[in-house]
Design a protein that fits this description.
Elements (H helix, E strand, L loop, with lengths): L4 E6 L2 H12 L2 E6 L2 E6 L2 E7 L14 E5 L5 H10 L4 E4 L3 E5 L5 E5 L10
Parallel strand pairs: 1-4, 5-8
Antiparallel strand pairs: 2-3, 3-4, 6-7, 7-8
Length: about 120
């Protein structure tokens, strides 16, 4: 099984989509009324318009979406975050944490993933 898509709902579709393209580095796939689709490997990240009555993202939430990167790319990622004036919220041995324009927690991570089947 794999993640098919992730949907982020926002009142600022263009700004949030631009953030995920320019800062995170996702590939544009499709623009349509009410949303933009971006590619993250084999996963689609959908940036969708939300109605005004839908609650905002909590700025204190620790829910997270983490995008993988190679350890050799850490310096390049730091430079990209600085160039876009993205505040690094915290770091670990493997990850750099920051927030998107709506306050969602996002990370770049080098943590090695070893996938295993059911035990």
């Amino acid at each position: 099984m794999r993640v098919h898509h992730i949907a982020f709902r926002t009142s600022r579709v263009r700004a949030v989509a631009r953030f995920y393209r320019e800062v995170v580095g996702l590939a544009p796939l499709r623009a349509q009324p009410g949303g933009v689709w971006l590619g993250a490997g084999s996963t689609i990240v959908m940036i969708e318009a939300k109605p005004a009555r839908e609650p905002a993202i909590s700025k204190r939430s620790n829910e997270l979406v983490a995008f993988g990167m190679a350890r050799r790319d850490v310096a390049t990622v730091r430079e990209r975050l600085a160039r876009h004036r993205v505040v690094v919220e915290s770091e670990s041995d493997y990850s750099i944490y920051f927030r998107d324009p709506d306050g969602r927690r996002v990370a770049f991570s080098t943590f090695p993933v070893r996938m295993r089947g059911p035990t």
